Amino acid sequence: MHLSVVVPCYNEEESIPLLVDRLVQAIEPWADRAEIILVDDGSSDETWATMEAAHKQHPVVRGIRLSANRGHQVALTAGLEAATGARIFMLDADLQDPPEILPDMMMMMDRGYDVVYGRRAERQGETLFKKATAYLFYRFLNTLSDVDIPKDTGDFRLVSRRSLDAVLKMPERARFIRGMFAWAGFHQIGLEYVREARVAGETKYPFKAMLRFATDALTGFSTKPLKIATRLAFVSLLVTVLMAVYVFGSLILFNTVAGWASVLLAISFFSAIQLLTLGILGEYVGRLYMESKQRPLYFLSQETGHPSAHAVDFT
Ligand code: UDP
Ligand code: MG
């Protein structure tokens, strides 16, 4: 197999027919040696039926269905594990990532690159809040992380078999796939594109999910937040010294000592610092616990098309 296309889908019944049409066109030059793998991430709408219909219409489409909703990054992982191609193209189901860029990405790969990632030159149809948080997130992540994770890129990319195999060797449960590819190394290059608005449905990343995704990325690629505790200790030491100067100063100069207000302030300041460092510690400990359980990332419940190498028989 030359080319595998992997698409994670969660409640995307409306997008899938459009997606399949555009994808089938985009892979035309390689159609006889290609497969399109749609992963149903435990959707509650008609996503699976839509995938089966797509397979009937275009045999090049395969569907795999997870036993429950496991999240974007795990669904993508399931598709990547099922992919058999020498080159693997991944994109979102909502057509925010244009499939038409594939020939350009293939050309870059012909020149010897292992990873050709899409860089968002512009985002259309997204809220100012989403744009601003995404902008800040990628910059904040880069200052904290030891790995150089390309800014303003998603999982939209074409990767070579050897870089995918490297990523699939990483067993972590909290997956931040774009970071894992960056960490794996090999020759990488970005290709700019305009991120359009969703064709149908709504975002599956509400604020809570965005926050979880961001902490997964931060804790997965940096231990610097843990060092913040040490720095905060110095800050609180400094504040204590300043307060001591103030208290003794007013005692000597005015023969009075500040009352309960300053005591209250000091107590809340230091407990805030302690709770913050405890919280950061908790994020890491919680992830350690989840990793240590060694649970499988997902189970497949159904497949259409060729049986994948990772088929699990639950009968
Ligand atoms: N997705 C998924 N499982 C989830 C949430 C999202 O497979 O639990 C898929 C979704 O169907 C889409 C992609 O992940 O193909 C990106 O999600 P979305 O477009 O909602 O994110 P956004 O573009 O708003 O950041
Ligand atoms: Mg989207």
UniProtKB/TrEMBL annotation:
Group of enzyme by EC: transferase
**What membrane topology does this protein have?**
Multi-pass membrane protein
Query: What EC number(s) does the entry state?
Result: 2.4.-.-
State any single GO MF term: glycosyltransferase activity
- Whether Transmembrane counts among this entry's keywords is yes
Q: Give residue ranges for domain Glycosyltransferase 2-like.
A: 4-166
Q: Which domain of life is it from?
A: Bacteria
Organism listed in the record: Phaeobacter piscinae
Q: What is the lineage of its organism?
A: Bacteria, Pseudomonadati, Pseudomonadota, Alphaproteobacteria, Rhodobacterales
Q: Which Gene3D superfamilies match?
A: Spore Coat Polysaccharide Biosynthesis Protein SpsA, Chain A
Q: Where in the cell is it found?
A: Membrane
Q: Which InterPro entries does the entry link to?
A: Glyco_trans_2-like, Glycosyltransferase_2, Nucleotide-diphossugar_trans
| Transmembrane stretches, start-end | 232-254, 260-285
Protein name as catalogued = Glycosyltransferase
Q: Which UniProt keywords apply?
A: Glycosyltransferase, Membrane, Transferase, Transmembrane, Transmembrane helix
Entries under PANTHER family matching the protein: PROPHAGE BACTOPRENOL GLUCOSYL TRANSFERASE HOMOLOG, UNDECAPRENYL-PHOSPHATE 4-DEOXY-4-FORMAMIDO-L-ARABINOSE TRANSFERASE-RELATED
